[in-house]
Specification:
By secondary structure, the chain is an alpha+beta fold. Among the domains are: about 120 residues, no CATH class; about 100 residues; about 100 residues. It contains 15 helices and ten strands. The strands form three sheets. It has a five-stranded mixed β-sheet with strand order 8-7-6-9-10, sandwiched between helices. Strands 3-4-5 form a three-stranded antiparallel β-sheet, with helices on both faces. Helix 6 links the parallel strand 9 and strand 10. Helix 7 runs antiparallel to helix 8 and helix 8 runs antiparallel to helix 9. The longest helix is centred in the first third of the chain and has 25 residues. The C terminus is likely disordered. The structure holds zinc ion.
């Protein structure tokens, strides 16, 4: 039976009119094919792109090395200092490269300066930005081992891909691409919030890989919602290497929020979270999450309803329920002093000698005392909830809790069973929030000019045809 043969040749034109030809691949098929043999197979595509990359990269490096370098300060031509070898790791395979070096100009020969300059700065591990980007982007969403398996199935990556490679690469992206360039964001006027913002804060826990005491550590996560509806998630380790207030300030700065941006801050009443708000957003209007207050009222109401169950004291339940409902109504309408009086009276009553024998009275006392204490601790954040709701202003942190779930619960605590340490979790949180905020590509563009140009939608192949 006859065979069909395709030879794929690369015609390089490194100098105008001077071409060289290299065969990249040879693809063969029988004339009589089944569906599985129709068109390119994945392994052929991988070999083809790897062969192309192996030609293109060294040629680019050679051309780069041929450009004479002059001193930036005095313009004197730099003297060549040979090459060093490196391994360029890309989406299309590892390519060994020779990187041209030059001596540093004598005019800059000060002590402590680098002795040579290179044609291209490969960084520590010579990973192509696109490989780092694709790895981090998917590692933020799926387990490291699965990302490694998928990438090596689809791409001619060099060497075996392990979960640990994916993890390390992702953490490096967090530290060197996302964190390092996050600080630049507030300088961009476009990123600055123009109207009032809502900032929601919540805490969540991540498993600590160091077992024993304190098996979990706390991550503060939240969201900024701007007047134009844009949402920005953030997350940082509490008591990490950076003080929480500094981490919070930076996270807000990335969202374009500064100390003087008009803001509403919502949280569940955690004293540490309020402290953060006071330190970083001292002018914000604090709002205690209505839902958390309502749940505590509900617990107290349950205790009240069960009062004296099955005895002659059951009528006491009605009075206690009425008292709680009135207190709740007052809180909802922003009448905190009235609410406090009602709750204090109920607590006093539940502690009296005359009702000591009533079934369930101890539980009611506890619930009411707990509720009252909770509201008193958050007194400064009690607002006219009804009026806020009418005006369409947020009164609950449900949007924040969804952010916490999104950022840490699913990926880092529940399904994954992964263990983290404080120093490694922050870069991962940074990558994850950047992916969820859809800013990862932007961060790469700041780090690597020319990375996936935003306005370059033209297709060069179509233009050439
Ligand atoms: Zn010089």
């Amino acid at each position: 039976m006859a065979k069909l043969v395709w030879r794929v040749k690369l015609v390089a034109e490194r100098h105008p009119g001077v071409t060289t030809e290299t065969e990249l691949a040879c693809i063969e098929r029988d004339e009589d094919v089944g569906l599985a043999e129709l068109g390119l197979r994945l392994d052929e595509a991988k070999r083809l792109t790897a062969a192309l990359q192996a030609q293109v990269v060294p040629a680019q490096m050679a051309a780069l090395g041929e450009c004479p370098r002059a001193c930036e300060a005095c313009g004197r031509k730099l003297a060549a200092k040979g090459h060093y070898r490196a391994r360029f790791r890309s989406l299309f395979g590892d390519v060994p490269v020779r990187v041209r070096r030059w001596f540093v100009c004598p005019c800059r020969g000060g002590a402590g300066e680098a002795k040579s300059v290179t044609a291209l700065d490969f960084g520590g591990d010579a990973v192509a930005p696109e490989l780092a980007y694709v790895t981090a982007r998917y590692a933020a969403l799926a387990p490291f081992g699965k990302v490694a398996a998928l990438l090596s199935e689809l791409l001619p990556l060099g060497g075996a891909q392990h979960a640990s490679t994916v993890r390390n690469r992702t953490l490096r992206v967090g530290a060197e691409v996302v964190q390092a360039h996050a600080a630049e964001a507030p300088d961009q006027p476009a990123a600055r919030a123009t109207g009032p913002v809502v900032v929601g804060l919540d805490g969540g826990y991540v498993r600590d890989r160091h077992r024993g005491e304190g098996r979990h550590f706390e991550v503060v996560a939240g969201k900024v919602i701007r007047a134009d509806g844009a949402q920005h998630r953030f997350a940082f380790v509490r008591d990490g290497q950076v003080p929480a207030s500094e981490a919070f300030r930076r996270a807000l700065a990335v969202a374009g929020v500064g100390a003087n941006t008009p803001a509403t801050a919502l949280c569940d009443g955690d004293a540490g979270l309020w402290r953060l708000q006071r330190e970083v957003l001292p002018n914000a209007t604090p709002v205690l999450d209505w839902w958390h207050a309502a749940v505590r009222f509900e617990h107290a109401l349950q205790a009240a309803r069960g009062l004296g169950a099955g005895t002659a004291d059951a009528r006491l339940a009605d009075a206690a329920v009425r008292g709680l409902e009135r207190a709740k109504w007052r809180l909802w309408h922003g009448r905190w002093p009235g609410c406090r009086r009602r709750l204090a009276a109920l607590r006093r009553w539940a502690g009296r000698e005359s009702v000591r024998e009533v079934a369930g009275i101890g539980r009611l006392w506890q619930r009411v005392a707990g509720l009252l204490g909770y509201l008193q601790r958050n007194e400064a954040a009690l607002v006219p909830y009804a009026a806020r709701r009418r005006r369409g202003e947020p009164i609950a942190t449900s949007f924040v809790e969804s952010a916490v779930d999104e950022i840490i619960a699913w990926r880092m605590a529940k399904a994954q069973q992964m263990r983290w340490s404080k120093p490694t979790v922050q870069p991962f949180l940074d990558v994850r929030t950047a992916v969820l905020n859809d800013t990862l590509k932007h961060a790469f563009r700041r780090r690597h000019p020319g990375f996936r140009p935003a306005n370059d939608d033209r297709r060069p192949t179509a233009a050439a045809a």
